[in-house]
Protein: ABC transporter substrate-binding protein
Organism: Candidatus Pullilachnospira gallistercoris
Amino acid sequence: MSWGKRILRSLLLLAFLGSLLWAAISFSAQRLAEETEPESESASGVCRIRITYPVYEDVTKIEDLPEVQEAVNDITVEKIGVEVELVPVDMSGIQDDYLLWLGRGERFDLMLVRGQDIATYIDKDLILPLDSYLQRSAAHIGNKNNWTGGTLSRGAEMQGRIYGIACLSGQEANGYGLWISGSLLTESGFAYDPDHIYTLEELDLLFASLKERYPDSYPLGQITSGQTSSSAGYYTILGDALGRDILTGVVQNESDAVINPFETLEYYGFLTYMRQWYEEGYIYPDGVIYDASVLELLKERRILTFPASSYPGTFSQIVGKETDYVCLRTTEVSRQSGVDGYLTIPATSRYPEQAAEFLDLLYSDRKLAYLLNYGISGEHYEITDWERGLLEPVRDADGNPEGFYNPFARIGDISKLYSFGTAVDDIMRNSYVAGAENTATRYSGFVYDTTSVSRQIDDVREVIREYTPILECGCVELDANYTTFLNRLREAGIDEILADKQAQLDAWLIRQGLKSAM
């Protein structure tokens, strides 16, 4: 998506939001949905629910999605009397689309919220509390959530109610880094250590060497055109956002102080390097407007590195085949819950009960989970290692996945499913997880309720969307624009958000006996 189109869409979104009272959206949207959705039943009279299906432009192949949907319906019609319509949605910049779609009343019965704060939708009454539906129509999920101490709802609860069911990736640890061809590193004479954490200073030396050897290439593919938040987390740690969006403030080193992450020395240091690297020709110059496949830039060696998760096998899954790419780790690997978004029932749903029934089936029927995540066995994937639980996509004559390939769909609980990868990947993943840091902190159990500052959060988010793409690709003069950015954040109300989060954290710490009352 071009920069101009993103700006236009943001302006349209702001104009739309300004014309509504968000408190009335839930009612009006559902009413509009009922008036404008004629095909809510199949030809056989079976109820049809609409589900958002995540796709990723650079990775996903879904030519055979209709065939997969048919196989899904063979299961759901028989078991719960419900047909499913899988609606592909590109997960990059999806928050804009969701807010527009739901605001104008478009009907979805189940919606995946990923890569964004679920509180955005809770605060605006755009998704329904699930508690009653779980009791009536999703006994398996309810029981499993109770058995596991709330694993499936953790992070999606507000004011004692559950608003989402977690998608569990099975990935127990994560960190970030830059992926680069191993042959390039060898040619450049760079000494690669897979366990080393590379600092910005060390990357600076590498980029200088790469630029000297490959003057027509850009060492860093810092692509910010689709960015709606900060990419700083790929390179440095700004702090702990305590389970919410980073814009609500972070705590560093368990200090109990909620601070603005964009005012930290770490963030300014990150921006300083981005600006320096842009001026020295290390950063791809069109990163703020580039709207095509990043993989093409890598194949053509127009860019030489790309930031992503450092989890072993990540790049091979992005490309769809084995490569010689290795990861230069830029952050420590830390333990994580494996939560990769939440399945929610929007306020525009016509069939929330049936959506809950499907949700329950998804978490209890592995065949259904395999279909949604990997396609049809024997046609789209094959089991290559029963002992290790490994899969490989069925490939065409060129070695590319054929028909259906969506390795990052991660719908439902795939922690118990087999996964893509080789035996080497499996060994590396086990080592990766074993070496991860334990991230448990004194704040475990704290939930920040954003309700009272939802307007300020919207305003701050718009400022971040405007400034971080240009600041974080280094394409504008730093100090003046950075100062303006901080001032705009204050004008939008970030200090009110920080104060609200601080007050809630202090009160929680006192209740837990972790802090004395003043």
